[in-house]
């Protein structure tokens, strides 16, 4: 899912392996470090991560950030 709002892009990704608040924080920290990202909301219970950015992100960049946090990107929702 991608939506354009006020020149921002919102994308929802599925991340596997998150089980707690620490997991959410690790994924959020890595994704927030990507250029153009303005907000990240990770929910361990659903495995969904919502990313708001100035422009669409390259999936390989998102995958690398999630990998760095120690989790696996399953794809976009």
What does this structure look like?
- The protein has 77 residues and is α+β, with helices and mostly antiparallel strands.
- It starts with a strand and ends with a strand.
- Helix 1 (21-32) crosses helix 2 (59-69).
- The model has no long low-confidence stretch (mean pLDDT 94).
- Strands 1, 2, 3, 4 and 5 form a 5-stranded antiparallel β-sheet that branches.
- The protein has helices at residues 21-32, 59-69, and strands at 2-5, 8-16, 37-43, 48-53, 72-76.
List keywords for this structure.
2 helices, 40% strand, five-stranded antiparallel β-sheet, alpha+beta, globular, single chain, 30% helix
Give, in order, the helices and strands: EEHEEHE
Q: Level of helix content?
A: 25-40%
N-to-C CA distance: 6 Å
Number of helices: 2
Radius of gyration: 11 Å
Structural class, from helix and strand content? alpha+beta
> Average pLDDT, to the nearest integer?
94
Chain oligomer state: single chain
Strand residue content: 35-45%
| Outline type | globular
**Low-confidence parts, pLDDT < 50 over ≥5 residues?**
none
Major pleated sheet? 5 strands, antiparallel
How many strand elements?
Answer: 5
């Amino acid at each position: 899912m991608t939506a354009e709002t006020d020149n921002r892009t919102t994308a929802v990704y599925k991340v596997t392996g998150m089980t707690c608040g620490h997991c959410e924080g690790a994924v959020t920290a890595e994704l927030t470090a990507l250029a153009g990202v303005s907000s990240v909301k990770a929910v361990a219970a659903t495995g969904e991560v919502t990313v708001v950015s100035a422009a669409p992100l390259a999936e390989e960049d998102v995958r690398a950030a999630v990998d760095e946090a120690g989790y696996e990107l399953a794809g976009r929702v």
